[in-house]
Amino acid sequence: MAPAPQPHRPPRSPQLSPRPPQRGGPGDRATLSSLNCRWLAAYAASQDTATRLHWRNRLVEANLGLVHSVAARFRGVSQLPHSDLVQVGCQGLIRAVEAFDLRRARCLSTFAVPYVRGAIQHEIRDREAWIRPPRQVWDLRQRAKGLLERRRVAGLPPLGRQELAHALDCTLQELEAAQGLRRAAVPLSLDAAQGQDLGGDGATTWLDHLADPHSLPREGAPRSDRQERARRSWLRRQLRGLDPLQRELVLDRVLLDCTWVEMGQRLGLHPRLAERRCNAALRQLRCRAEAWRQQPGAVLDGVAS
Asked: For burial by CB atoms within 10 Å, which of 6, 15, 87, 227 has the most?
């Protein structure tokens, strides 16, 4: 008498390894590529949720080395721990596996890199400060925090500012700049009033500094308060009329002198795309400036230059 057939049980989903698999030369890469093809086919052919989860986890576990490799590229860019970048990179790898189409003649590693990199870039943008302080100032702040913490653990009284600056071999001004990093990194609204001017049409805003009286007019051109106010008012209106992303790009480039790479990382764009969109916005502003300058009574010397 033949034994009764055993019911089909989906394979158990293995736990993801916290360490990347060891990979060597071209033979190992070819083996991984072959495994990816077979497991992707099994994942696509699976009907029940448990089996699909099993093959998805197998694919993620086998390609953890890719996540570590992409995360390592941000070592000098981000101040977040490598483990945090790997964690969010794995989420991008999971989305890549779920979105992979076998009909495309592309390997999984090539397809997954944009997903992993995008997940890491979004994490950096959301968790890190928009304004990055100089490395020397940041290191001084960390040294000061470490020294104060060690004294607290040892039961010693806290140091005054002058004593702390002497212990860190820096000036009092350098120490104050380092300790004020948190306040300095808080972004301010460009429409916020400065100083004691808290409102009203005549309030001076941070946006007014875009219309620098020393750079806007051409050399030798006549100046007047009325003309300066007209230029600044026009520039404020034009910037507010831009798309929010374009406005961010223009302000980062003009005010902060950011590179295309820094702008792309902060806004989640490719550097070339950030450059194209920023240049398009600047061309748009120049065309509007030329048209405004041709109007009767309009004075906009130097804005379009």
From this structure: 227
- Which CATH number fits the domain 206-293, given the four candidates 1.10.10.10, 1.10.3720.10, 3.30.429.10, 1.20.1330.10? 1.10.10.10
Q: Are 175 and 144 in contact (CB under 8 A)?
A: yes
Q: What is the pTM of this model?
A: 0.42
Q: Which amino acid would we find at residue 65?
A: G
Q: Are 63 and 108 in contact (CB under 8 A)?
A: yes
Q: In this structure, is the dihedral angle defined by the CA atoms of residues 198, 200, 203 and 206, taken in order, positive or negative?
A: positive
Q: From CA 226, how far away is CA 223, in angstroms rounded?
A: 8
Does residue 247 register a pLDDT over 60?
Answer: yes
User: What confidence category does residue 187 fall into, taking pLDDT thresholds of 50, 70 and 90?
Assistant: low
What gap in Å lies between CA 269 and CA 261, rounded to an integer?
A: 9
Domain ranges across the chain: 29-127, 135-180, 206-293
- For residue 86, the model assigns a pLDDT of 93
